[in-house]
Design a protein that fits this description.
This protein has 261 residues and is α/β, with parallel strands linked by helices. The protein contains eight helices and seven strands; from the N terminus they run E-H-E-H-E-H-E-H-E-H-E-H-H-H-E. It has a seven-stranded parallel sheet with strand order 3-2-1-4-5-6-7, with helices on both faces. Helix 1 crosses helix 8 and helix 4 runs parallel beside helix 5.
């Protein structure tokens, strides 16, 4: 559920740009699409479930946002290529890529199967690689642009029941820095947003309990809003961050500093 708030950013901050958001049909991904679209971008979203994508695009269009979708499993390079090619056919350009698709389930290492570990790493890390590399090869290398990868803050300290997730997110952080180094000369900026606990998201409820428990040691004493995380993505994707690349922007109210989680 999204809590409405007034954006601190100019309404046309990404006017004229086209954004692709993976895992964009629900939750944080949909809110990122809504925030980018609400600041002028045309948006394409992708995920594995077409029914969710159709509902999300309809909601975005009702908000006055030009939106399209593609069904895609980010673990499959051929499906990723098809979606990026369709975005280029539909909108004629691709300026912003947001790698948000992710998998998660709480499990101790003793009960974590190799397939379970691989599934999360493949969705989070391999998926980020597939989408970023494909977008770079088909458009960004010749035209520049911005890639924003959604990571987390739990890998900085470690977290019980999340060995598969912290491994994947640490990989995303490292991949981001390397992409920034290699692709910077082509005008491609690559950055990370690392969210903390967000209010009323189903995934966080399953992992960390209620808001009061999660924010007991948070310096700001509250969970974040998906909109606040989406606005961090907006900043890094926009020309306001034109000299920022290879950076990690932690958006967690200082929770990781205080051992929240």
């Amino acid at each position: 559920m999204t809590i409405a708030r007034r954006s601190p950013f100019r309404a046309d901050l990404v006017q004229g740009k086209v954004a692709l958001i993976t895992g964009g049909a629900t939750g944080l991904g949909l809110e990122i699409a809504r925030v980018l679209g609400g600041h002028g971008a045309r948006v394409a979203i992708c995920s594995r479930k077409e029914a969710n994508l159709q509902a999300a695009v309809e909601a975005l269009r009702q908000d006055g946002i030009e939106a399209a979708y593609g069904v895609c499993d980010v673990r499959r390079h051929d499906e990723v290529t098809a979606v990026v090619e369709e975005v280029l056919r539909t909108f004629g350009q691709l300026d912003i890529v947001v790698n948000n698709a992710a998998g998660n389930f709480p499990v101790p290492i003793s009960a974590l199967s190799p397939n379970g570990f691989k599934a999360v790493v493949d969705i989070d890390l391999l998926g980020t690689f597939n989408v970023s590399k494909t977008a770079y090869e088909l458009w960004l290398r010749e035209h520049g642009g911005a890639v924003v990868n959604i990571s987390a803050a739990i890998q900085y300290r470690g977290m019980a029941m999340q060995a598969h997730v912290v491994s994947a997110k640490a990989g995303i952080d490292a991949l981001t820095r390397t992409c920034a180094i290699e692709w910077g000369p082509d005008g491609v900026r690559v950055n990370v947003v690392a969210p903390g606990a967000m209010s009323r998201t189903e995934g966080v409820k399953r992992i960390a309990g209620d808001d009061q428990h999660r924010t007991a040691r948070n310096p700001l004493r509250r969970p974040g809003l998906t909109t606040e995380v989406a606005e961090a993505v907006l900043f890094l994707a926009s020309d306001a961050a034109s000299y920022v690349t290879g950076a990690t922007l932690v958006v967690d109210g200082g929770g990781w500093l205080a051992g929240e989680g």
